[in-house]
Design brief:
The structure holds 2 protein chains of 2 kinds.
Chain A: E1 2-3, E2 6-7, H1 8-15, E3 74-77, H2 80-90, H3 124-141, H4 144-150, H5 160-175, H6 181-197, H7 200-212, H8 215-218, E4 219-222, E5 225-226, E6 231-233, H9 236-248, H10 254-261, H11 268-279, H12 282-296, H13 312-333, H14 338-343, E7 346-349, H15 351-357, E8 367-370, H16 383-388, H17 397-408, H18 433-442, H19 445-458, E9 482-485, E10 494-497, H20 499-507, H21 510-524, H22 536-543, H23 549-555, H24 560-563, E11 564-566
Antiparallel strand pairs in A: 1-2, 3-4, 5-6, 6-11, 7-8, 9-10
Helix pairs in contact in A: 3-7, 5-6, 5-7, 6-7, 9-10, 9-11, 11-23, 12-13, 17-19, 18-19
Chain B: H1 15-21, E1 30-35, E2 71-78, H2 89-92, H3 105-113, E3 117-122, E4 139-140, E5 142-143, H4 150-158, H5 173-194, H6 199-216, H7 234-239, H8 250-267, E6 272-277, E7 285-286, E8 294-297, H9 298-303, H10 308-335, E9 352-357, E10 371-375, E11 378-382, E12 386-389, E13 401-407, H11 408-418
Parallel strand pairs in B: 1-6, 1-9, 2-13, 3-6
Antiparallel strand pairs in B: 2-12, 4-5, 7-8, 9-12, 10-11
Helix pairs in contact in B: 4-8, 5-6, 8-10
The chains are: A mainly alpha, B alpha/beta.
C-alpha cells in the first residue's frame, strides 16, 4: 500500500508519536518499581502550571504544605446561578415575573467545577446573553406601575435627582459597594442623555441595562488594595461579596453590607460566623449541593441510557435526588466528615427507587433508609455514581476506578496514548467483566502500565451493574470483587474485597481527606488562580476529626486567601 | 430550499460594499466547519484503500456523490502535536494539544477577513456534565460554548433581516443601546488598566472588551448581506420551544442549525461559521426522530465497535451526518446563485469551503494519526476525516481525493490560505501549506 510513493508504515512513523507506556505518564515497569504517575504528565485539560502566573505547579488539590498559601488577585465572573440569584435579590419587585437569565451553561474547569474564574470569561455569546438579560430586566423595571413602586420619586420628579436616587440604590446592590462619584455621574449622564431624546422611564431602562452589564456587576472583584508590603488586601466590600456568593450564591444583603460599611469583616472569626449563617440557609444548601454535584459529576447519569434496563430512565432523576439528599443528610444534618461520606450505611430513596434497587419497604416520598447489608455503603454505593461510571451494556472497572483515582485521590488521569482499542463487548454468561478487563488491560504490558493504577480499584465495584443495582452474580457467573491500590497513589499498597472494604480502606487514607479538603477549597475560592494549599490549618482540623465538612467549609472564610492576595511575580 | 425562499434582495445593494473591499478578481468566499465526532470506520469509507470509490453506494460518503466533483477527501492527515484520542478534540481546530497558545482556525481566518466567527452546536455538551473538556473545540481567547438553540442562532445571524423571535426595537433603541454599550466599554477599559500586570485578568477583560465592541458595532461580519428579509426556516420554526440539549431532539436541532447556517451563508450574514455536532464521547442514542434508528449510544458502543455488525452501524450513523449536511445545507448552497458574486454563474457552493473534520481517525482504534487499522485480518490505511467541499472561490485544486502525509495544523493553514488569509500563525508557528490542495 503506497501513498505518494511511501508506505503507510512510513506515514505512521512520520506522523505518529506513539510510544506506549512511555508517553502515557505511567510507569511501564513492574509493580515493585517506583510509581511516577503523579509527577509525569498533566491531567487532561491541565496545562501543568498552577495558573497563578508564576509558572510553578503547586502540586494539585491534594497537596499539603506547612503554611497556607494565597493566590493571585482575581475577577470572578458570576455563574449562571449567581446571576439569576442576583437579579432576584437586587430587584425583588420583579422576581415573580422575571423568567430567568439568558446566560447559558458555565464552562467547566479541568477539575469539573463550573465556578472557576480561569474559565468563566465573557466572549461574544456571553456578552450578548448578558445584554439580553439586562434588557429583559429593564423592561420589567420600567413597566408603569413597577417603576412607581421601585422608585416613588418618579411619580412626581422626572429629573436627574430622581434618576440619581435610582443609580444610588440599585448601583450599590449590583456593584456590592457604593458607586464612586465619577461612576454615579456617568450613569446619571447616560440617563439624562437618553431621557432627553425620549422620556424618564426610557432613561431608567437604559440605565438598568448599563448597570447590569457593567463589569462591576458581571464580575465580583477580588483584586484588593495594595497593603504596602507587597501584598493585596481585599476591601470590606469585596469580603462581603465573597462571603455572600461563596457561601450562599447570592449578593450581600443589607445586613452584610452594613457590616462591610462598619469595617467588621477584617476579623477572620467574624467571617466564619457569617459563613455559618449563610450555609444554614436554603441558598447555602444549594451552594453546597452545587459543589458536590460538580465534584462527583453524579448528575452525569441524567443523560445515560441502558437499553436492557427499561426502568432505568424512569429512575435516573430520582438517583440524582437520592445522592443530593444523602450527602445533605450526612454533611449538614449529621455534621459528618469525609469518612462519614464514604461509610454511611444509609441512603435517601423514594418508593420507585427502593423498588428499582430491590430495597423494598419504602412508600412514596424520599426518606432516609438503612441500606441492606453488604449492598454497598456511602458515596460509592450511590446508584447515580455507579451508573454514570459504566458502559451502556456493562459495568466499567476502568471508569469506576478512575472515579476514585481522580476524585478521591486527586491523581491526574494519564494522557491516553494513541491506538488504544476499545474494550471488547460483553459476553454475558460466558465471561465476566473482570475477566475481560484483566485479559485486555492487565495482561498487556502497554495497557497495564496505566490501568494497574485504577482498574484494580474498579474491580471492587463489580457487585453493582451498569444500571446501579446490586447483583449477587454476573449472569450466573461468580463475581470476584477483590482489588487493590498500589503503592504510589497511597503510602502502602492496600487490598480489599468488595465495595464496602474499598470504602473502609479509602476512609482510612489521609490522602483521601486531603484530596477532598483541597478540592473543596479550590471550589469555594473559584479556582484560586490555580493555587493549592489554601487552608492548611482548617484542612488539618478536618483530617483530625475536629469538625465535619460543613464547618470546614465555613472555616475557609478565615483562610489567608480569603482576605489577602499576592501578585503573581512575588 | 432554493433561492425562492431566501428573500434575496434585488438589487443587491450591499454587494457593492463587499466588492469595494475586495481586490479585483476576488470572490466572496465563506467558510463552514462541520465537526463530526469520533472518526469513521475506514473500510466503509475507502473500501479499496486507494481512494478509488470514496463516494460509492456503500460508502459513508455516498450522500456526497452528487457533489463528488466539488469534494476533496484529503487522505493521510494525522493530528499535530501528539494530540490523540479524546483529548484531540482540543487540537482539531487549533492544531495543538490543549489548544496551544492561540485561537482556533475559524477565529484566525475571521480576523484575517475582518469578520466575525460564529459557532453553533447541535447538543454540543451533556446537560448533566456541562460544557467541559470533552466539548472544547473552538477557541476564541477561551473555549467557546456554541450557540445551542437554532432559534437563538437565527436571531443572531439573521435577526438583522427582521422576523424571528426577537421583538422589534422601539424607536431610538439602537442609539440608546449604543450609548449603554459605550459606558460599558469605558468601564472595561478602566478596569483593564487597573489589572495591569495580572496577565490572566488582562486577557479576560480584553476578550470581554472585544465582545462589547463587536456588539456595539452591530457585529463585524455581514460584509456580504444580500437578503432583504429573513429566509423561510421551516426546521427552526418546527423546533419551537423544544429542549435543544435533549439527545432525543438531536436530529431536529441539527437540521435547524444547518438551515440557519445555509441561510446565513447565502445571505452573507455569516462568513465564517462552525457547527459542532455533539462532543467527543457523546453517548447520544441514535434512535432520535429523523435519525438512523439505532437505539445505541453513538460513542459507546457504536463507535467503539470492532465487529462487522457494529462497524456497519457506525458507518450508518456517520453517513447520516453527511445526508443531513447535503440535504439541509449543500443542496441549498449549490442551487442558489451567489447574490454577492458579480458572476451570475457562480453558486454559493462555488464560493464556499466546507471543512468536515473529526478528532480521531478510527473510533474503535482510538487513534488520531494516519496509520493502519486491521479489520478482519486486512489492513486499511486510515486517517483523520478531512473533507473539503465546495469551490472556495476557485482557490482549491479540486479532485475527489488527494493523498498526503501531513498534519492537521498544516491543513488548517492551507484552508486559511484558500480563504485568502496567508501566512497564518497557529500556536506561534507558521505551518507549511499543503500545496497539493491549493489551485
Amino acid at each position: 500500500m503506497k501513498i505518494n510513493g511511501a508506505s503507510w508504515t512510513t506515514a505512521v512513523a512520520a506522523i505518529s508519536i506513539v510510544a506506549l507506556g512511555l508517553t502515557t505518564g505511567c510507569y511501564g515497569g513492574t509493580d515493585s518499581e517506583a510509581w511516577d504517575g503523579e509527577s509525569d504528565g498533566p491531567a487532561e485539560g491541565d496545562d501543568g502550571d498552577d495558573g497563578d502566573g508564576d509558572g510553578d505547579d503547586d502540586g494539585g488539590a491534594q497537596a499539603r504544605c506547612e503554611e497556607s498559601k494565597v493566590g493571585p488577585p482575581l475577577l470572578r465572573r458570576l455563574t449562571q446561578a449567581e446571576l439569576d440569584n442576583t437579579v432576584r435579590a437586587v430587584f425583588p419587585e420583579i422576581a415573580g415575573t422575571f423568567e430567568g437569565v439568558s446566560v447559558g451553561a458555565d464552562t467547566v474547569s479541568h477539575h469539573g467545577f463550573g465556578n472557576d474564574a480561569e474559565v468563566l470569561w465573557v466572549a461574544e455569546q456571553t456578552a450578548r446573553e448578558l445584554l439580553e438579560t439586562a434588557e429583559d430586566v429593564a423592561d420589567l423595571v420600567v413597566e408603569p406601575t413597577m417603576l412607581g413602586q421601585m422608585l416613588p420619586c418618579s411619580t412626581s420628579d422626572t429629573t436627574s435627582t430622581c434618576a440619581g436616587e435610582f443609580v444610588d440604590t440599585y448601583g450599590e446592590r449590583l456593584f456590592h459597594r457604593p458607586l464612586t462619584a465619577d461612576e454615579r455621574e456617568s450613569y446619571v449622564s447616560l440617563h439624562d442623555e437618553v431621557a432627553t431624546q425620549s422620556d424618564f422611564a426610557t432613561g431608567i431602562r437604559w440605565t438598568v441595562v448599563a448597570l447590569m452589564q457593567s463589569p462591576h456587576a458581571v464580575y465580583r472583584s477580588e483584586l484588593g488594595v495594595d497593603d504596602g508590603e507587597g501584598g493585596r488586601t481585599l476591601t470590606d466590600w469585596e469580603l462581603a461579596a465573597a462571603l455572600s456568593y461563596d457561601f450562599s450564591g447570592n449578593p450581600p444583603d443589607d445586613a452584610l453590607m452594613a457590616m462591610a460599611a462598619a469595617g467588621d469583616l477584617g476579623d477572620p472569626q467574624t467571617r466564619v460566623g457569617v459563613a455559618r449563617e449563610l450555609l444554614a440557609t436554603a441558598s447555602g444548601q444549594e451552594t453546597l449541593d452545587a459543589f458536590f454535584a460538580d465534584w462527583l459529576d453524579y448528575e452525569g447519569v441524567a443523560t445515560k441510557t441502558r437499553n436492557d434496563v427499561p426502568d432505568f430512565e424512569m429512575v435516573r432523576a430520582a438517583m440524582i435526588e437520592e445522592t443530593r439528599r444523602t450527602i445533605a443528610s450526612i454533611v449538614v444534618d449529621d455534621k459528618g466528615g469525609v469518612a462519614d461520606l464514604l461509610l454511611s450505611d444509609t441512603t435517601a430513596v423514594n418508593g420507585a427507587l427502593a423498588a428499582y434497587y430491590g430495597f423494598g419497604g419504602v412508600g412514596g416520598d424520599f426518606e432516609i433508609v438503612q441500606r441492606p447489608e453488604n449492598w454497598g455503603v456511602g458515596l460509592l454505593g450511590q446508584g447515580s455514581l455507579l451508573a454514570a461510571n459504566a458502559h451502556v451494556d456493562a459495568s466499567s472497572p476502568t471508569q469506576r476506578g478512575l472515579l476514585v483515582y481522580e476524585r478521591l485521590l486527586c491523581l491526574p488521569r494519564p494522557p491516553i496514548p494513541e491506538d488504544i482499542p476499545a474494550i471488547e463487548p460483553p459476553s454475558p454468561g460466558t465471561t465476566t467483566t473482570r475477566e475481560r478487563y484483566e485479559e485486555q488491560h492487565m495482561a498487556n504490558d502497554g495497557c497495564r502500565a496505566c490501568h494497574r493504577l485504577f482498574d484494580p480499584i474498579g474491580f471492587a465495584f463489580e457487585h453493582f451493574d451498569e444500571a446501579g443495582r446490586f447483583r449477587a452474580d454476573e449472569s450466573g457467573l461468580a463475581i470476584d470483587a477483590r482489588g487493590e491500590i498500589p503503592k504510589g497513589p497511597v503510602a502502602e499498597e492496600v487490598a480489599f474485597n468488595g465495595l464496602t472494604e474499598l470504602s473502609e480502606t479509602l476512609a482510612a487514607q489521609p490522602e483521601v481527606t486531603d484530596c477532598v479538603s483541597g478540592l473543596t477549597a479550590t471550589y469555594v475560592f473559584g479556582g484560586a488562580g490555580g493555587t493549592s494549599c489554601l487552608a492548611e490549618e482548617a484542612r488539618t482540623s478536618l483530617a483530625d476529626d475536629e469538625y465535619g465538612l460543613l464547618e470546614y467549609v465555613a472555616q475557609l472564610a478565615a483562610a489567608p486567601h480569603f482576605a489577602t492576595r499576592r501578585m503573581p511575580s512575588e | 430550499m432554493g433561492a425562492m425562499g431566501l428573500g434575496l434582495a434585488a438589487p443587491v445593494a450591499s454587494k457593492v460594499a463587499w466588492m469595494a473591499q475586495a481586490a479585483p478578481g476576488d470572490r466572496p468566499v465563506r467558510l463552514m466547519i462541520f465537526y463530526v465526532p469520533h472518526g469513521w470506520p475506514i473500510e466503509h469509507v475507502d473500501p479499496g484503500g486507494n481512494g478509488d470509490n470514496l463516494f460509492g453506494e456503500a460508502s459513508v460518503l455516498s450522500p456526497l456523490a452528487p457533489y463528488a466533483g466539488a469534494t476533496t477527501v484529503v487522505r493521510g492527515i494525522g493530528m499535530n502535536d501528539g494530540a490523540s484520542n479524546h483529548g484531540a478534540i482540543r487540537a482539531t481546530l487549533t492544531g495543538f494539544s490543549e489548544g496551544g497558545s492561540g485561537d482556533s482556525i475559524d477565529r484566525v481566518i475571521a480576523d484575517g477577513l475582518g469578520v466575525q466567527a460564529h459557532v453553533l452546536g447541535a447538543v454540543p455538551y451533556s446537560a448533566g456534565s456541562g460544557f467541559n473538556v470533552d466539548s472544547f473545540l473552538v477557541k476564541h481567547g477561551t473555549w467557546v460554548r456554541p450557540t445551542e438553540s437554532p432559534v437563538e442562532a437565527a436571531d443572531t445571524l439573521l435577526g438583522s433581516l427582521g422576523g424571528g423571535s426577537q421583538e422589534p426595537d422601539e424607536v431610538g433603541d439602537a442609539e440608546f443601546r449604543r450609548l449603554a454599550m459605550e459606558l460599558t466599554e469605558r468601564e472595561l477599559e478602566d478596569l483593564h488598566t487597573k489589572v495591569k500586570g495580572l496577565t490572566n485578568e488582562e486577557n479576560k477583560l480584553s476578550l470581554h472588551l472585544e465582545a462589547v465592541r463587536s456588539i456595539k458595532a452591530g457585529g463585524s461580519g455581514p460584509n456580504l448581506v444580500s437578503c432583504d428579509e429573513r429566509p423561510v426556516l421551516p426546521a427552526v420554526d418546527a423546533l419551537g420551544g423544544a429542549d435543544v440539549l435533549d439527545p432525543a431532539n438531536f436530529g431536529r436541532v441539527l437540521d435547524a442549525h444547518l438551515e440557519v447556517a445555509a441561510a446565513s451563508l447565502v445571505c452573507g450574514t455569516a462568513q465564517v461559521l462552525t457547527l459542532q455536532n455533539m462532543w467527543v464521547n457523546a453517548d447520544v442514542p441514535f434512535n432520535f426522530a429523523g435519525g438512523p434508528g439505532i437505539a445505541k449510544g453513538h460513542h459507546d458502543p457504536i463507535s467503539h465497535s470492532w465487529d462487522a455488525a457494529g462497524r456497519t452501524e457506525f458507518a450508518t450513523c456517520q453517513r447520516w451526518f453527511y445526508e443531513r449536511l447535503v440535504d439541509k445545507l449543500i443542496t441549498t448552497l449549490a442551487e442558489t446563485p451567489d447574490p454577492s458574486d458579480a458572476d451570475a454563474g457562480h453558486s454559493v457552493l462555488d464560493n464556499t469551503l466546507i471543512y468536515v473534520c473529526s478528532e480521531v481517525s478510527d473510533g474503535a482504534n482510538h487513534n488520531s494519526d494516519a496509520s493502519e487499522v486491521w479489520i478482519d485480518g486486512q489492513g486499511y490505511g486510515n486517517y483523520l476525516p478531512a473533507l473539503l467541499i465546495g469551490g472556495a472561490g476557485g482557490t482549491l485544486a479540486g479532485g475527489e481525493q488527494i493523498t498526503v502525509q501531513r498534519t492537521n495544523v498544516e491543513l488548517l493553514a492551507t484552508i486559511a490560505a484558500a480563504m485568502g488569509v496567508d501566512s497564518v500563525q497557529l500556536g506561534g508557528q507558521t505551518p507549511d501549506l499543503i500545496q497539493e490542495v491549493l489551485a
